[in-house]
Known about the structure:
Blueprint: E1 2-6, H1 10-22, E2 26-30, H2 41-44, E3 54-57, E4 67-70, H3 72-83, H4 92-121, H5 127-148, H6 161-170, H7 184-194, H8 197-209, H9 219-226
Amino acid sequence: MIELYYWTTPNGHKVTLFLEEAGLDYQLRPVNIGRGEQFLPEFLEVAPNNRIPAILDRAPADGGQPLALFESGAILEYLADKCGQFLPASGRERYVVLQWLHWQMGGLGPMAGQNHHFRHYAPKKIEYAIQRYMNETSRLYGVLDRRLDDHEFVGGDAYSIADMAIYPWIVPHERQGQDLEEFPSLERWFQQMARRPAVVRAYALAEEVNPQAGEPIDDEARRHLFGQR
């Protein structure tokens, strides 16, 4: 049994995509980050960085005590190794997938996240910041588009955790000021991903957990999300 501490963000969606694809038995534990639940002591025992997602694996492969993990990239790699799916076990193919996973973790996610913040949440519109992060998001979309020119999936010929990590950050492309028609190979991959039954199930689950996703945030949510030091 995997306990998934989750909220309806791109990083949260990564793990529900994997669990739905792999068919693993899991229990969802919603953590409403707009109401400060990420700071509750019981959550911090699992995720000391007070960020979702996190997991608690009550049946780890080594047979030991339950294993808690945070950081979405580490969770995906762990689950892939546990299941023997969506990540080659060894060789160069494994490292190709991992490099794109780290590309998302270190590039696409942070840059698109700053894009979202300055375009939609910052109390003052700072044009330099908006353009800076829109342009960098566009550059990263171009990198991905070129990769997908001659590869069916991000990691190569096979669907992998790299696709699962990247897709949720492309879903809000309009909010990032990006037009997928300018990236035809990326658009082809995006549409293919959106049709996968596990992806459909994961996003339907998100709507059940948080029907208000995408609506303007209130002052309490702003304080919890952006007011921490």
